[in-house]
Amino acid sequence: MKDELGHRMKQDYEDALRLYLPRRSYFVIRIDGRGFHKFTVGFERPYCRPLADALDHAALHLCQEIIGCRFAYGQSDEYSFLLTDFEQENAHLWFDGNVQKIVSVSASLFTGAFNKVFQSEKVAAFDARVMVISRRAEVARYFLWRQLDASANSLNMLASAHFPHKELVGKSTAEKHDMLHAKGLNWAKEPADFKRGRIVRHTGGSWHTDREIPIFNREEGYLDALIP
């Protein structure tokens, strides 16, 4: 009876919403900090190096766990991981493409690795989503989109560190640059990884973090070498 009941519970309920990714495509897992506008209150501004280091550590850890991971791109409180399963005839997809497993385990591993190294009385949490991108060109556009977002976030963080919110409401990107220049501040001179993000990639037999990445649509060969 136990086996029959267990089979029915799994078939009727547990498996009812089980979804699987299609095979032979590009997959992106994006992990975001949950409620990080509150979590980061009191942190170093405009950019917090220990926070970025902990995010990189978590990304490195997850890259080593994910089957088929090609590289990861991080900025602000997020990281995006590119997976493929077509480079070899017998290539496997992580958890056989089980969406629930992929998003729950990736968020769990990333959260655990981050909290292990980040020194704070607060406990960080991350959520995850997975998407299918069928065309290689669209994969490149996805990462360009995230990098454009990184630059916008970086400028806003720098401006917010020196001006009250009410003075920035409705200001264009050019106006924010002008306001900063009036105070002798130049966003272009800020650390490259805070302006453009970081890449975790596999070279020389191990994973490492590249903090001096180019602007993707100016040096297209950089992403082209990473996307299979």
What would your notes on this structure say?
The chain is 46% helix and 18% strand. It is of the alpha+beta class. It has a single domain, classed as tRNA(His) guanylyltransferase (Thg1) (Alpha-Beta Plaits). A six-stranded antiparallel β-sheet has the order 4-1-3-2-5-6, sandwiched between helices. Helix 5 (136-162) runs parallel beside helix 7. The radius of gyration is 20 Å and the shape is globular.
Q: In terms of topology, how is this protein built?
A:
Elements: H1 2-14, E1 26-33, H2 36-39, H3 49-65, E2 69-75, E3 78-84, H4 99-117, E4 126-133, H5 136-162, H6 165-168, H7 173-182, H8 192-196, E5 198-203, E6 206-210, H9 220-226
Antiparallel strand pairs: 1-3, 1-4, 2-3, 2-5, 5-6
Helix pairs in contact: 3-4, 5-7
List keywords for this structure.
228 residues; alpha+beta; Alpha-Beta Plaits; six-stranded antiparallel β-sheet; 9 helices; 6 strands; 46% helix; globular
